[in-house]
Every structure is written in structure tokens, then in C-alpha cells.
Write the C-alpha cells for this entry.
Amino acid sequence: MIDIKQQALRLDEHDALKAYRARFDLPEATIYLDGNSLGPLSIAALQALNTCARDQWGKDLIKSWNVHDWIGLPQRIGAALAPLLGAKQDQLIVCDSISVNLFKLLTRILSASERKRVLLQTDNFPTDNYVAQGLAEFARGDILLSYHQTSDIVEHLDSDVAAVVLSHVNYKTGERYDIKTICQQAHQTGAIVICDLAHSAGVLDVDLHAWQVDFAVGCGYKYLNGGPGAPGFIYAARPEALIGRSALQGWMGHQSPFAFDHSYSQASDMRSFLVGTPPVLSMAALLGALTDFQELTLPQLEQKALALGDLFLRSLSDLGLDEEIRLVTPTEHAQRGAQLSFEHDNAYALCQALIAEGVIGDFRAPNVLRFGFSPLFLSFADVVEAALKLHEIVRCKSYLDERFLRRNTVT
Ligand SMILES: *Cc1c(COP(=O)(O)O)cnc(C)c1O
């Protein structure tokens, strides 16, 4: 272990991102391995929030919609996000949550197609599939869903498939999929791909243009550090030729919201994905958080995230922990995201015991422990320290203590 600690120190010395730690307000004595679920407080986000609340809302009141261009926030933030996704500025808009954005996309795609079927990943984050299920129930037989493992989803493509909805990285196992190949195959049969980037945006080397993804969604509160409930985003490959009608139409998606027309007439650009009034304070925080990424490249982020994960795995193996907690994430770099997941019969209690020791990871039912390796604020020494704490807890079986077994509402 002395070796690995020294190796961590050497890696930290040469870490080009080490100065970014100071841009976050993290509590003392905490190793935060949960930036994949809720990014920590970015000081730039806090400042932006403060400015928006005090100076804009406080002083300029309703004038701020124009004076501070609040009305343009969904597009301005989309433009700031574009370089992190291999997109052009006008291909993105920031609004609502992934769930709501998926609903809008599916209704648009299905309204423009004779095809009825949507292919879903069996083990996708449940909300993605719930949205599709609600829509299919509402459509009473006009929309058909089928669920498949990602490895064989393309085998189910045929001339009745309108869309494929899939995540780039599996939220539970951390496995990453080859979206480029799936898009190629989907396009051969005329299907449209919607890719969920919840666990990719802000940490992986995403290139939506090169992968030829048709539409993508993602959230602002995970690796992008936009704050709890931060709005998500929608990407469209062809913003100049958007298809279909959204079944969720609201005044902000109207081509002239302030004409207060009697009937809806959908805007012709990315604004057509908007529905209601934007959550300005959340948007301000997200825009602030994105300034932390301005000078970084995507390969830098991804490489450090993977290197942190590699060191964690090496530490566990040196400590002889790899039998006790079983890795479920593939080890190949190309096949994993910035998160590592492990199975353990007492995963919930283990997670709680770690939190009590200042190492924050999370738990996903029934028996998965997840650790996220955010490259902006974690050091290599943090990762080794987390492995040591985990080792201590497993060795003493302290996780079996009564207080670690009780379930909280949010797990
Ligand atoms: C976190 C996550 C979501 C969250 O959806 P919201 O509607 O934004 O709450 C959706 N999909 C995936 C894959 C996720 O990991």
C-alpha cells in the first residue's frame, strides 16, 4: 500500500487538472465519489446564482427578462454546453428534465413517422422507459414498445422501428456502449436514435456529430455540476429541419410567445422544445458551473476519470478486496464510463458505513455500490484513501452495525 500511496502522490503532482479542486466548495474530510449523481457546489455556479438573484432579480426585477436576457438562457446555455458534446451552438437547448425532454422528442418523432415501434434498453434508467410506457398507454396501440439488451438491440431493427432510446453509459453498471455503431445500424433501417447522456456529459469524450446521433438528452446536475434539479438539455443533429409536433406544447415553444395567439404555432428552431417559463435561478447556476469547463478538453476529462478509476481498482486488488466486493463494470476503458459499480450482499449498509467515514458513494437497489470518479475535484490520493477506508470497514465488518441497516427515503 505504501507503493500505491506514493504512486498516487506522483500522479497528483503531474495532474494537469489539480488546480480545479479549488473551484469547488466541498466539506472538509469528505471524499466525494458521487459527482455522477449530484455534482458538488461549484464556486462559479454560486457566484452566478448570487448575481442573478441579488443584482438581476433584486434590482432589475421584471426588466431582467430583456436587460439580462433571461429569455435567451435556454439557448445561451446550450451554446456554452456545445463544445462538451461535440455539437454546434445552435444544436442544443437547455430546458426541463430528461424525462420531460424524452417525452417531447418521442412525440415529435412518432408524429412524423408511419412507424409504430420504439426499441428500449431493458436495463436503462427507469424514467426513460416509464416515459415511453406512459406514451404507449396513451396511444392505445398506436405505439409499440420492445425491450432489449444493448448487445442485441440492433438485431431488432426493422422497417417498423421509428426510434431507439438508449443510454450511452448504464447508470447502474457503469458500462459504456458503442453509440456510433448503433447509430450506423439504426440509420440503415431508417430508425432515429435518441441517446441519453446523463452519465457522459461533462466527463466523457462525447462527439455527437461524429457518432451521427440524431437526438440526445442529458441532465445538468450530474457531472456538469449545475446544482440540484438543474435543467437538462436536448440536442438535435439537424436544428434547421426539425421533424414532427411535440405533444407537450406551451407558450415558450410558440414561434412568437408574446403575440398571445389563440392557437399554437410551433417555433421552427430549437426553441420549439421549450414549454413553460424557464427556471431562471437554476439556469443561472448551470451557466456559472459551465465556466469551469471552458479551458478543458474532453480527452483530458475522460483520461483523468479513467485513471482515477484504474487506481481505485488497483488499490482494491492490493488490499485483497476484489473478492469481497465484486466489480460489475467492464475494466476496458472503451467499455466503461467514469463510474465503477460493485456488488455486495450488504451494499446498502456498506455504503452507509462509508458515508459515516466521509467517503460518499451511492447505492442502487438491490445490491450495487457505485463510485463516481469526477476528474475536476478528486485527487489520486483521495481515491487511495477511499479504498483504505472501504478496506477497514469490510475488515471490521462495521457496516453490520444497526444504524447502517435502516433505509432512508432517498437511497
Ligand atoms: C439521472 C438519470 C436520469 C434523470 O432523469 P430526470 O428526468 O432528469 O430526473 C435519466 N436517465 C438517466 C440514464 C439517468 O442516469
